[in-house]
Every structure is written in structure tokens, then in C-alpha cells.
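Input (structure):
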């Protein structure tokens, strides 16, 4: 068991007094906080369904990173701010522009991978100087896999 850690989930401060050192951020989010928008796919860092945002102060800058919650241990959040897909809506309920674009451009099919894609895109938008070239965006999303759509239709027999 570790001693307590402190971090923010969204804008709410959390202090967790004791927990298993192998407790993952994904299990804590889904089981303890019922934040089930963060999905469990592979549970080994390959699919991106569990992508969340972790923000840290580095020097005098806030650095936003998209991370796989299934391979982050809870203790790694100490001193950070964590955002899940549930945090993206405005207080008035409006979707984040990335979510709105996904709706308007039919960016999802079954939706299982969608929160992870959205979180990776939000992190990319927060990256200073991020290129809007297609290759750069594809690279930024390379860790997110969609199993049910996104493939070109076959030409048939
Ligand atoms: S569930 Fe975390 S990367 Fe697949
Ligand atoms: S929309 Fe179904 S897995 Fe991506």
C-alpha cells in the first residue's frame, strides 16, 4: 500500500489515502468513480479506447498528454490533473468542438472507440504548434484503433 496521493479529476481535488500500487487509473475511473465513458478494450496499452488527458505543470507551462489509462498506475497521477471524456462538456452542456465535429461529420459507428479518439484529438489540439497536415494528424491518432468502421469498402466479387 502507498501513502496518499493528491490530484484533480476535472476540477475536483482528490486525495486518496491508501491503495494498491498496481491499481490502474482505468480501474479506478470505472469502478470507483463510475466514469464509464473511458472504455476498456485491450487493457494492455494497444487500442486507445481508454485514452484520458493528464495535465502537468512543467516549468512555467501546462503540458497536456493523452495517455492510456489501462497502463497508468493510480500513483502516477500524484500532482497532476486528469480529464476524462465526461469533463469535456461545457457547464451549460454544450459539446466540446471536437465532439461536435464527430457528430456533424459522422465520425463514429458503434462508438466504443470514440471517447478515446476524442481525447487524443483534444490533446493534439492542446499541443503548441500542432500541424493540421493530414499525415501529422494520422500520426497523432496512431494509438487509437477502431474495430468496426474506418475501412474502405471492398469492391465486391
Ligand atoms: S484499453 Fe487501454 S489501450 Fe486498450
Ligand atoms: S466506432 Fe466502433 S470501434 Fe470505433
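Output (sequence):
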Amino acid at each position: 500500500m502507498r501513502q496518499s496521493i493528491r490530484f484533480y479529476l476535472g476540477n475536483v481535488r482528490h486525495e486518496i489515502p491508501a491503495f494498491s500500487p498496481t491499481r490502474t487509473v482505468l480501474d479506478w475511473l470505472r469502478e470507483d468513480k463510475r466514469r464509464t465513458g473511458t472504455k476498456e478494450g485491450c487493457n494492455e496499452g494497444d487500442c486507445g479506447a481508454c485514452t484520458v488527458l493528464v495535465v502537468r505543470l512543467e516549468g512555467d507551462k501546462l503540458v497536456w498528454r493523452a495517455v492510456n489509462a489501462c497502463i497508468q498506475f493510480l500513483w502516477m497521477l500524484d500532482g497532476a490533473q486528469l480529464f476524462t471524456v465526461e469533463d469535456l462538456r461545457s457547464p451549460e452542456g454544450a459539446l466540446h468542438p471536437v465532439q461536435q465535429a464527430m457528430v456533424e461529420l459522422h465520425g463514429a459507428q458503434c462508438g466504443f472507440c470514440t471517447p478515446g479518439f476524442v481525447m487524443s484529438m483534444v490533446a493534439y489540439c492542446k499541443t503548441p504548434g500542432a500541424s493540421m497536415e493530414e499525415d501529422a494528424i494520422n500520426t497523432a491518432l496512431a494509438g487509437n484503433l477502431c474495430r468496426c468502421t474506418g475501412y474502405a469498402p471492398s469492391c465486391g466479387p
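Notes: Strands lie at 5-9, 12-16, 51-58, 61-68, 81-83. The longest helix spans residues 114-125.
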